[in-house]
Specification:
- The complex is a heterodimer.
- Helices cover 66% and strands 2% of the residues of chain A.
- By secondary structure, chain A is mainly α.
- In chain A, strand 1 and strand 2 form a beta hairpin.
- In chain A, helix 4 packs antiparallel against helix 7.
- Chain B has a 3-stranded antiparallel β-sheet, covered by helices on one side.
């Protein structure tokens, strides 16, 4: 630790954090703070970009024009969220090209949830309801995170996530009013996504070594377990209204605590998926790499066109 | 080939939310030229009627004050209390002032 009494830069940073004020890109900040933010914002941006794939796979198979338009808009939003976050991350001095390279080389991670496959159209609904619902629980407190550009990106994202969650829940409600087979499809989808959704909050607090420092820096505002509890409490009545159950025999209301008790996800499975051994890790990265490489000629052509236009404009100015 | 591998320049994006408001900085993006920057800004920052006008400017063209200099930079406005209306004592019985 730096001795704050002798380091005016550190003291200024500590005072700003202590007052609950925001740190802005041109302010001095400790290396660890910058590194933690780059890691977290990059992971968050990559998650949005990779998150386009599981649902994007269903755009061509949407059951109606209405559902197709909604899904297109949603997947486009995910791209937008990725771009807001890359933009915030770049204010910390990393380049976009570096971030893309680190995603496709596996040096930086994305949320483990997107390594699970989408097997039926009900999964589009379940992802909106549970996966985006969990993301909202994680993201709302981040609107007050201590790094200005990250917080401002989160405010934009949270405004749009509400559409994502509601369209998903409405999709599932529509299926639940359908045939017995459609209801079974919804329940099967919820069964598959419930545990991975709980994993989205990260490991339990006593196994999350970086959490305490992130909270001291005001980057994180709530612990993993607190947010997970909040998500379970919010989701149970929504499941009842929908007419589905969660696949957890330990899930029950605890009047004493004023919260639901619930079981733990399989943390060994979580670690395996994080390490790259989930059902779709290889496919997701291969797809992103292919899109990046096959888009290279477009980026080069646009650069060449811009250079030509600039040269022509310059030539005209010279002649005038 | 390092020239074509180079990234598109970074642009800062400013959006006027509605008539009567200032353009406000909303974020940044990469684009090959000004036209593309405007198109990208529309798609990234105004998908839900967030604006009626967009400005884009290359980030390298923005001059900014340094946060380290903030004391000397803004000191001249601190010691001129007479620039604020509350500096002047006006009796309570004087209306509309």
């Amino acid at each position: 630790m730096t001795d704050t009494a002798t380091d005016p830069l550190q003291a200024g940073f500590d005072t700003t954090i202590g007052h609950g004020d925001r740190i802005e890109p041109r302010d001095w900040m400790p290396d660890g703070y910058r590194r933690t933010l780059v890691r977290q914002i990059a992971q968050h941006a990559h998650s949005e970009i990779i998150g386009m794939q599981p649902e994007g796979a269903w755009i061509g198979r949407a059951p109606s024009l209405r559902r197709k338009a909604i899904l297109l808009a949603k997947v486009q939003d995910e791209a937008g969220h990725g771009l807001y976050l890359y933009s915030a991350c770049e204010t910390l001095g990393v380049s976009r090209g570096e971030l893309t390279e680190k995603l496709i080389s596996g040096a930086q991670k994305y949320s483990s949830i997107f390594n699970y496959p989408t097997l039926s159209y009900a999964d589009v609904g379940t992802i909106g309801w549970l996966v985006d619902g969990a993301a909202i629980c994680n993201q709302v407190p981040l609107c007050r995170t201590s790094f200005g550009p990250y917080g401002r990106a989160m405010i934009r994202i949270c405004k749009e996530e509400s559409f994502h969650q509601r369209q998903g829940y409405e999709l599932l409600m529509t299926m639940m009013r359908g045939t017995e087979a459609q209801r079974a499809m919804v329940q099967e989808s919820v069964n598959r996504f419930w545990w991975p959704a709980l994993m989205m909050f990260g490991p339990p607090d006593d196994e999350s070594p970086n959490s305490a420092q992130s909270m001291a820096w005001g980057i994180k505002r709530n612990s993993n377990d607190d947010l997970r509890q909040r998500f379970v409490d919010m989701s149970v009545p929504q499941a009842q209204a929908l007419g589905v159950t969660f696949p957890d025999p330990e899930l029950r209301w605890n009047a004493e605590r004023g919260h639901h008790d619930f079981g733990q996800p399989d943390w060994d499975e979580f670690m395996q998926v994080v390490k790259g051994n989930g059902p779709c890790n290889t496919q997701r990265i291969a797809h992103r790499r292919k899109a990046h490489e096959e888009g290279a000629w477009v980026r080069e052509a646009a650069t060449a066109y811009a250079a030509k236009q600039a040269a022509a404009a310059h030539g005209q100015e010279g002649a005038a | 080939m390092s020239e074509v591998r180079a990234e598109w320049p970074l642009y800062e994006v400013f959006v006027r939310g509605k008539r009567g408001l200032n353009h406000v900085h909303v974020g940044s993006l990469h684009a090959a030229d000004d036209d593309m920057a405007l198109r990208h800004a529309r798609d990234v920052y105004t998908r839900r009627n967030e604006g009626v006008s967009i400005w884009v400017v290359q980030s390298k063209d923005i001059a900014a004050s340094s946060p380290d200099e903030k004391d000397p930079m803004f000191a001249p406005s601190n010691d001129k209390v007479y620039r604020h209306p509350t500096f002047y004592e006006i009796p309570d019985n004087v209306p509309h002032m």
